[in-house]
Amino acid sequence: MSNKDDTGREYGAYYGRTRLMSLTELTECMYRVITRSADSVTVPTGTEFALWHNGEQNIVVKVMNLTDEFLFIAPGLYTCEAEELHNSVEDFFEKFNWTHPGDGLDRRFFCTVHLLSEAQQRAHDHQPGLFFSAAKS
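Given the sequence above, the corresponding structure tokens read:
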């Protein structure tokens, strides 16, 4: 987070450019930006994303097309590269957010990042893209 205002909120680097967007519009914008940068150094080539916005403040990011070899050094234990990817994706979304250090619920949105294993991808036939349910914003 970079900027602070008199309410104590801290604003991410991209908040100013997106502050007038609804969360639905913002989710669409973030999806476009992250899919364009999916071949960057911190995101392996071929990585795909699904963003789910529930119509409230919650956005779920599913990161797909990752191998178990990339993800795990042992069952349930991420590799350093997978940890770096998770943190990098989380940090990317926080650039569009605001937070309040004194109030964990005072946020523009809550973002959850899931790195999907090969089994998770097969079991649920996850598809990349944008998904919305009961969007109110």
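The first helix runs from residue 15 to 18. Try to locate this feature in the token string yourself.
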